[in-house]
Each structure stands twice: as C-alpha cells, then as structure tokens.
Amino acid sequence: MARFKPIDYERIIRSQYLVKLSRKPLDQFSLYGFVLSCSETLTLLHVLDKDTFTLNGYSVIRNEDVSLYAVYDRPDYYFDSRVLKLKGIKPEPKPEISIATLPELLNSINMNFPLIAIHREKISDEECFIGRLSGMTPKTFTLFEIDACGEWDRAHRYRFEDITKVNFGGGYEEALALIANEDAKKKKRRKRDAR
Question: Which of 44, 73, 125, 179 could serve as 121's disulfide partner, Cβ 3.0–4.6 Å?
Fold first, then answer.
C-alpha cells in the first residue's frame, strides 16, 4: 500500500503520481486518479476507474473533505501504478477549467463540457443531479436537469454551500449527452418533416 504523508500538491501534479483520496464519513468510497490542479478550496482529479483501469472523466472535490490520502509515488512498486504504466495510461492535460471558486468551476465546465453532475453528499449521499447550468446568483445556481433516460426534465436551484463534489466528462455524462443530442436531432427532423 502507498505511504501516507503530508499533501504536496505541486510534487504530485508535476510527477503525475496516482493518488487515493478518502472523504469518509462523507463518502464511503475512495477516489483514485491523478491530481491535475488545486486551489485553496478545491482539487481537480482525473478519475481512474479501478475496476477497469481506465480514466473516466473528472471530479472536483472540496479540500476540506479529504480525510486521508495516499500517494503511489513508486511507479515500479505498487500494483496499480505498474498496471497503469504497462497500459500506458497517463492523465490527459488539464481541461480548460477554473477551480478558483465553485461559480467559476461550474461556468467553465458548462462552457467546455455537455453536462455537469453535482453531489450534495451531506444532504443525500445516494444521488447526484446532472444537467446544464442555466442561471446563477451569488449564493445559488440553477441546473436544467436531465433524467436517467437522457430526457430533459426541469430546472432546479441549488446552494453553492451544499455542493461537495462535481463530476464532468465521464462515461455516464457523455452517454446522457449523446442520447439527449440524438433525441433533439430527431425532434428537429420531425418538425421539419411536418411542415
């Protein structure tokens, strides 16, 4: 197992080491991946799916929620690091995302990715909300949500202070966006054909 030590984000980012971030009791499951960037309050992680050893989108978490972490800083020693090396898996360059504040984060994701998934784990650790940013005030934002079938639902307002994790660019978000885009194209064709 990796050694536990004080967080040296600059070294971790520069060396592209695999990390394990635990956020217990907020989340019972650890996050694995590569730290791409961090600010005073947020960390951007390129997520590793440990079941398939593939990169699967990005997560941004609050630094205050990290309860324990491990740095896999010996790439030729740890099993996970060796598998990544043999498969040639490295983090992709940091996407054009600002993690200075939650409002900047959500705006930059909305400009560069089709969908945003937000988590409010202190309120409910079993659900997330996925959609497009459609409005913002200094304390809240509105998410036009998409359901599990890829159909646009309705807009809901959330408080920034309740957000514990934001995901984007993952396989599930991409799948929902594909279905929503295909359905929108079909709808346009039906309207055009009905004329």
Answer: 125
